[in-house]
Amino acid sequence: MTRPHLFQLVRRAAAINPRGPAICDDGVATWAETLANIEAMAGRLAGAGVRPGDRVAILAANSGSYIEALFAIPRLGAIAAPLNTRLSLTEIAALIHDAGARLLLADAGSLAAAAELRAEGAVDRVLLLGSAGDGAESLAALTAAPLPPEPAADEVAFLLYTGGSTGRPKGVMHTSSALIANVHQSADVLGDTRDMRFLYVAPLFHVGALAYTVAMAMHAGANVPLPAFEPQAVLRAMERERITHVALVPTMLSRVLEAPDFERHDLASLRRIIYGASPISEALLRRAMAAFPDAQFAQSYGQTETVSICVLPPWRHVVEGPLAGKLKSAGPPAIGVDVKILADDGSEVGVDEIGEIVMTSDSLMVGYWNQPEITAETLRDGWLHTGDMGFIDQDGVVTLVDRKKDMIISGGENIYSVEVEDVLARHPAVLEYAVVGLPDPHWGERVHAVVRLRDGAAASAEELIEHCRAHLSHYKCPRSVTLAETPLPLSGAGKVLKRELRVTLAATLAST
Prior knowledge:
The structure is a single chain. The protein is of the alpha/beta class. Among the domains are: 22-151, 3-Layer(aba) Sandwich (Rossmann fold), CATH 3.40.50.980; 332-403, Luciferase, Domain 3 (Luciferase, domain 3); 407-510, ANL, C-terminal domain (GMP Synthetase, Chain A, domain 3). It has helices at 6-16, 31-47, 64-75, 89-99, 111-119, 176-185, 187-190, 207-219, 231-240, 250-258, 282-291, 372-378, 417-424, 461-469, 498-510, and strands spanning 21-24, 28-30, 55-59, 79-82, 103-106, 125-128, 156-162, 170-175, 197-200, 222-225, 245-248, 272-276, 296-301, 310-312, 338-342, 355-360, 367-368, 379-380, 383-392, 398-403, 408-410, 413-415, 430-440, 444-453, 480-484. The strands form 7 sheets. The chain has a 6-stranded mixed β-sheet with strand order 10-9-11-12-13-14, with helices on both faces. Strands 15, 16, 18, 19 and 20 form a 5-stranded antiparallel β-sheet that branches. It is globular, with a radius of gyration of 23 Å.
């Protein structure tokens, strides 16, 4: 059976739903119009000299033009390299150099940064993505060239960077075939696909958001991009655009629930709330389920290297009955995914025993761009070694306990930060939290918590430690607590940046 390319999904969507909304962003573009727009953009990129195999970098906020570019670039057989807009210019330049991209597409908000990157020689050419920008060469104004034959589904279509905070950044290579396989694996995540209207809150350089553009094309649904995360903006968009599906990382979900005008919005159109990208506390999940009683919840656990690994479907989001008791889990493996738990020596562990989660499926990455050694270390015999620690219970459900690198070893005992964070989340005064290990001369490492309290709430470090001791063995509890006055640092995808917290804490300790 011939496997389709991403662009074929767009062509099919335009055939089955030509007058239906495809992109809702400063107006509404139908699927027929979106197909024409993507073909025109691909032609103009060809006119700009883009050829099969070339890498085209994107530095922009979420928009309709961005979504079109994610299909137009692969239509040429070129490789789209979406970049994290929150990185420094030095970091962005390093990614562009690593990808070997000579062309950068930038929106109006990123033009100044793009111009500086070009002036410094990081990229040969910058083109404006969108319709507004002073003095910039616009992609829309270029003359189109004929399109080449459509590429094969197994050619690399995307280069997604991950893990660039320490050492050389890793460019994850994905094909059309892998991303389309992920849509099938995510059937339990999307659920009812009738007349879908999907709100993009996470940035499109994140694999989760990118994967949903593929799903919307497959199901001919409507893409509603939000330029940046802001709780009130999310609520307004949900109400105004009659959103049916939204994906939020736990920190975003928490901040939406904290919005002062939450109760005033009509959110009856919501059918599915998808969460993932980082662990969620059971306290936050229960609160969200109560706040959105008419919406179904689904968790998607995955990584940039494979998109989907496990799914906790709506029917396991219950607090009583025979299917209850799994809210802390990631769920069973997604459709078409095999998962094993391995010990450090590579042997498979037993039921409920903790080890590294390894998996295989048709949505695996090709490998890391120009890094065969790290690819071979991560992909072994077709199995992805995730770096996540977890276990599989007797029901075949996977539960994560921590990232290997975040596990704290104190006095020879393994302590999983997620377990401590889940307890902190139950304290009524706690809004945000992160648990890290800090060097300790006696214990090797000690458990340290960084906590931000709710507005108007009060709790001392001692009270928070005692709260943990009421629910955990004492060796797992924080020995010290920092009460943060500002929001915890987040990645572009909305995850708490524990590495930044460690650096800040280390500097603070060194100065005392």
